[in-house]
Amino acid sequence: MKLLLIVVGVLAGLAGLAVVVGLLRPQTHTAVHSVILAAAPERVWAEIADVERQPEWLPEITKVERLPDRDGRPSYREHFGQFEATTVVTASDSARRLVKEILPGGAFYGSWTWELAPEGEGTRLTITEQGTVPNPLFRAMMIFHDDTKSARDYADALARRLGVGIEGVR
């Protein structure tokens, strides 16, 4: 019984420490990743803008459901890992800029912005993630998370989908 109390006390102490660490971390973050893809902006745009087909090539997205428009804007429920998020396309400028807002209600919310610009024979793609993580336990876990990993993984999967190389990573 004494050993059980010690184990429970240690676990409670670790959980308390995680909460304190999470409370000390900022709720918001911004991560930017930019690459040059050896494909024309229109071709890159066709894949980025086709949200419903992303599960075909983006490993972390397992399912996308089209939802009714919100204020005349396309809306989706995206499933990934143990999470799902409702997103709304808040800006769409053909072959130049796409912004999807992740609505509050899950473990995180914020936005992803894709900006495309011609660069030589290819396209410079810049992905900006602006996120908010309200739960201090999740913020504490983000100590072990590379903020640009999701954008890097997205760019790598997109390049594979397009069958092109990536250069100029920053």
Output the keywords.
170 residues; alpha+beta; Alpha-D-Glucose-1,6-Bisphosphate, Chain A, domain 4; eight-stranded antiparallel sheet; 4 helices; 39% strand; elongated
Overall description:
The chain has an eight-stranded antiparallel beta sheet with strand order 2-3-4-5-6-7-1-8, with helices on one face. The protein has helices at residues 2-24, 41-49, 136-141, 149-162; strands spanning 28-37, 63-70, 73-80, 83-93, 97-102, 109-119, 122-132, 166-167. The chain is built from four helices and eight strands. A hairpin with a 2-residue loop joins β2 and β3 (73-80). The mean pLDDT is 87. The longest helix is centred in the first third of the chain and has 23 residues, at 2-24. It has one domain (2-167): Alpha-D-Glucose-1,6-Bisphosphate, Chain A, domain 4. It has 170 residues and is an alpha+beta fold.
